[in-house]
Amino acid sequence: MADPELEAIRQRRMQELMGRHGTGNQPNPEQQSAQEDAKREAEERRQMMLSQILSAEARERLARIALVKPEKAKGVEDVILRAAQMGQIAEKVTEERLITLLEQINSQTAKQTKVTIQRRRSVLEDDD
Q1: pLDDT band of 61, cuts 50, 70, 90
Q2: 44-52 long-range CB contacts below 8 Å, 24 or more apart?
Q3: Could you give the 3-state DSSP secondary structure of residue 115?
Q4: Distance CA 34, CA 30 (A)
Q5: Residues 69-100, buried b or exposed e (16+ Cβ, 10 A)?
Q6: Which of 34-43, 83-92, 113-122 has the lowest mean pLDDT?
Q7: Which residues lie in Basic and acidic residues bias regions (predicted)?
Q8: Counting beta carbons within 10 angstroms of the beta carbon of residue 58, is it exposed (0 to 12), middle (13 to 18) or buried (19 or more)?
Q9: What are the extents of the domains in the chain?
Q10: How many Å apart are CA 47 and CA 59, to the nearest integer?
Q11: Does residue 45 register a pLDDT over 70?
Q12: 36-103 adopts what CATH topology?
């Protein structure tokens, strides 16, 4: 009963709609690869700048910190790079200076915990 031409038109129309929907939602592979290349290049530049700013021991310590707490290491790297861009760092950052910087950051971001004990009063207790 179905006309083969009509079925072919339906198939082509369905493919067009699926094609538009797929490209509208996700970036095409060329854009995606360009974004990945840009991210990779930015990370390479970042690492190159850090290698110029940090001594070998400081880089090693920061790498060990990154293994345990990547977000903290990224934050320390950001602080160091910002200071270098503003001209606050004149010489290579040694391991000792990195440790003091880490201590300062830890003291600023330390969470203060407070425990409050509330004693429940029983109905039978008499406060006369």
Answers
A1: very high
A2: 46/77, 46/81, 49/81, 49/84, 50/77, 50/80, 50/81
A3: coil
A4: 6
A5: eeebbeebbeebeeebeeeebeeebebebbee
A6: 113-122
A7: 7-19, 36-45
A8: buried
A9: 36-103
A10: 10
A11: yes
A12: Helicase, Ruva Protein; domain 3 (1.10.8)
User: Cα(64)–Cα(51) distance, rounded to whole angstroms?
Assistant: 15
Q: Which amino acid is present at 58?
A: A
Strand partners, 54: 93
Look up the pTM and report it: 0.58
Q: What is the pLDDT averaged over residues 60-73? A: 92
For residue 33, give every residue at least 6 positions away whose Cβ sits within 8 Å of its Cβ, in sequence order, or none.
none
Residue-level pLDDT at 1: 46
Tell me which of 110 and 68 has the higher pLDDT. 68
Q: What is the share, in percent, of the chain residues with pLDDT greater than 70?
A: 87
